[in-house]
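Hi Prof. W.,

I finally got the Putative esterase prediction working! I wasn't sure whether to trim anything, so I left the full sequence exactly as given:
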Amino acid sequence: MQKIHFYLLILWIAFACSPPTEESPITIKIAPELQEGLSDGRLLFILSKDKEKEPRFSISDEASTAQVFGMDIENYSSGDKISLDLESFGYPMENFQDLPEGNYFMQAFIIKYETFNRSDGHTVKLAMDQGEGRRWGSTPGNIYSEPIAFDLKKGASIEITIDQEIPPVSEPEDTEFIKHIKIKSDLLSEFWGRDMYLGAHVLLPEGFEDNPNQYYPLMVFHGHFPSDFGGFRTIPPDPDLGDDDYSARFGIYGYQKIQQQEAYDFYKKWTSPDFKRFIVIEIQHANPFYDDSYAVNSENLGPYGDAITYELIPYIEEQFRGIGEGWSRFLYGGSTGGWEALAVQVFYPDEYNGAFAACPDPIDFRAYTTINLYEDENAYYQKGEFRETLRPGHRDSLGHVSAMVRDMNLKELAIGGHESRSGDQFDIWQAVYSPVGEDGYPKPIWDKKTGEIDPKVADFWRENYDLRYIMERDWNTLGPKLAGKVHIYCGDMDNYYLNNAVYLTENFLEQTQNPYYGGEVAYGDRAEHCWNGDPNLPNYMSRLRYNTMYLDKIGTRLQESAPSTFNQQNWTLTKN
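And this is what came out:
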């Protein structure tokens, strides 16, 4: 975080000495040059004790989270000051009046909303992706104040000026192997009532320019918004890198060097004479709700599944000589990408030839993390006759719990309000899976404050997005199209309890007949999120090898399903 300048220290003293006022108002001023174009949005007032990070980057599910209060802004007029409503909902402390006095770093932040007049007749106000992947703290055009240190006293008046704006992102440049494309989607543009785009980073095979008559299989690597194609590096690791950088997630030092070495090793494999030749794509499909669309059609997000499968992928195959047949396309990914890989295979069974779903988001809503949406009455509490217990939301490999489902949802409520606008995990699941509510926003699966589940919404989720249920319901017609294509991998100590839904799905798959599903389900012993199927390597290594780790299984599938004209040795199809 930037150093506190002298004038901020003066403000600190001024705040501490301000005379008490009746309502303890907090006033937000906006610099004149940042007022133009601001109409609607979400004001976040954030307080933190962390001296190392800005408050906007300190909000989390962990106990060390910053404090945030959120309120909607509507029809802002230039020159207006904004008074924070002290009744605004907060996380982790709900009420402003309960904040203890003391020293804090304070920051005001405005997430700008745009108005969408959708083709379903609803008008909604949402935050639009600006090329960064729908991450509110980094969205170009969003405005904020510099962090200010102050001593909070009961009844003190506070005025803070928003005078910073997040700059535009830089677009990645094409290289010999990596190309970047962006197309307007007619399907999505019609739904949203404005031009909407899909993008992709495309990794081309060695010899692409030298062999203009060769056509290639397509590997779709699903996952969160990629700023560029990851894990591919044409030069050795930076020699100045030391072993002192620490990865808190994996508990090891020198992880940046490991990542660069793995990326360089992949390049050497990719260009070696005996390596298979194929195309890999990572898709950009950020939207007003999240950093990706979950790659399916949705009442709230629009027809992203059709747009990706029938607009984007054919365009890529035409531009870069993909074979363009269902037998030549494969899907893989982890977490969000794992759910997408399986969902796309289920919903478009003829268009793809295999899905490798690692640590997928809940694929059976009887285990929607730790919630059974069809039998539980409350998402936050397990209720008994004489007591109720909070449901855990996050754990480590030893089962130690660090966050509850309730807290994770209340954080989203403070950031985004009641309309799934936080850009976070439970809100995007709700936006993708739910029917549209009367107000045009996703109909809540549960009351965000109390956790009470709406069984009618749960029924809608089951019929349209519960992947295990849909496969079981439609196995007579889906089974012949999915046989040999479904592969699922998950650690048995997944941090988000995602293995529970995999167990239930495996129970169904192993009972399938006419045909038997003929795929694979495997678990990593004591492995956390996101174990992806390699029992011999730790996850911090295997997660860097998605583009190579399933190739043997894909090769077997191609031998079973590709036409005789397909070259099994180098995976190319020659056309004159």
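The radius of gyration is 25 Å. Does that look reasonable to you?

Thanks,
D.
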